[in-house]
Amino acid sequence: MTANGRIHYGMMRRLRASFLTVSLGSLTLATPLPAARAAASDPAPSVDMTDLRPIAPNILVAQDRRISLVPNVGIISGRKAILVVDTGLGRANGERVYQAALRIANGRRIYVTTTHFHPEHSFGAIAFPPSSLIMNAAQLDELREKGPAYLTLFRGISAGAKAALADTAPVETAITYTGRHILDLGGTTVELREAPAHTRGDQIIFVRGSRILFTGDLAETNYFPVLIDKDSSGTKWIDVLGQLIALRPSAIVPGHGEITDKRLLNDVRQMLIWMRTEVDRSVRQNMPESEMITHIEAAAKSRYPEWDNSQYLNYDIRSFRDEAMARCKRNPRCAADR
After folding, report:
1. What residues have CB less than 8 Å from 214, skipping those under 6 apart?
2. Which alpha helices (DSSP H) does 109-171 contain, by range?
3. Which tens digit of pLDDT belongs to each residue from 123-180?
4. How many other β-carbons are positioned within 10 Å of the β-carbon of residue 30?
5. What is the pLDDT of residues 222-248, one digit of tens each?
6. Domains by residue range for the chain, with CATH
């Protein structure tokens, strides 16, 4: 999930208000889902399937054009089947993606998968036949638990988001897996792998022959990571990115932002390591939370001046602080240092 620019703070306040009135059951978010700015001039959150970029002989990508609530959408082809990666926000976007997939498949079987349950990545799946959807079991569980609340919240982001989510609901998948799943498309082998960090159900998609990696929101070009959910973990994120670097991908298709190379993984990982180190130091110094956030936010903006999503930095810092405080409770030496 990305803001694609600076957030509109009036919308942030309205999101907070809507969060307080939505019945969430067991769902707990670290923040009430500040998903996007809502300026009247924002383009509609529409996936453009008319301009597909070939990044390998058998892989096409519809790029997000850095538009709010639009993901990068991939289509991976084999002799027997194709795999669609992410579906856009709501039924109308999903229908555009599905119609493009039908044309490209030309009679071959169509599979669709989503990198995580957030609505701009997964809620377009409603336009696909239920038998075509495959995802990891953790993502399905998270979708069942949080999907209805996220649907309500995203409808409140903007008029464009509300329109995109008309006649839309979270959908069940026909095929689930745990750990990893190998999908043979016919001459093209794709590995789906669980990689929880941004959400509990994150998965990556790795095309083995061409070594193209679809990361979802685990890596976004020139965006700060977003740790807003109770299931988000910066420390897990660091570990996951290390595992993805070990795959030696030839190119990265991020959840949002420009297609790039493996340096993106290292850039995001080093940023998270830096922030965790700064937060740990502040906790050991018993720095007040508000002072910690102010100090580290300013340092992050100075260190990464080209990165968007800076409005989420306070949530990222709080998430790392919670982890640091939990470690201190288990470590007498840390408590003594404080």
Report:
1. 72, 74, 85, 86, 115, 204, 205, 206, 253
2. 119-122, 137-155, 159-164
3. 999 999 999 999 999 999 999 999 999 999 999 999 999 999 999 999 988 899 999 9
4. 17
5. 999 999 989 999 999 999 999 999 999
6. 9-337 (3.60.15.10)
